[in-house]
Amino acid sequence: MGNYKNYKVWEKSHQLVLKVYSLTKVFPKSEQYNLTSQMNRASVSIPTNIAEGCGRETQKEFIRFLYIASGSAHELDYLMLLASDLGYIESEISKNIISEIDEVKKMLASLINTIKTSLKT
Fold this sequence. Notes:
Number of strands: 0
InterPro entries: 23S_rRNA-intervening_sequence (IPR012657), 23S_rRNA_IVS_sf (IPR036583)
Strand content: under 5%
Radius of gyration: 15 Å
Order of helices and strands: HHHH
Organism: Flagellimonas marina
Distance between the termini: 18 Å
Largest sheet: none
Shape: elongated
Mean pLDDT: 96
Protein name: Four helix bundle protein
Helix content: over 70%
Structural class: mainly alpha
Low-confidence stretches: none
């Protein structure tokens, strides 16, 4: 299918993972197996599913993994809001990260639509 590292959405989501891990390092120990773990897993799921989809045989399979990545981005969006409301992340930092998540979601939607269009021709 291709090299996942060639996709801008993969690079953007990889950078997002690094930011999320950095943020969750300072969460309370009581959240280690709860919110910290959930946020880290949701963030990692985005670029991981892009990479896995690139390794599949068909464009349809790739699209399926892009949808899974999109679902994880939506999950992370909510978890970031929750962490902010719980006071684990400053509001301004949370807004900036949520803005980045929104950009990743838009990029994924665009890539899905591009691939779907190419399948119709």
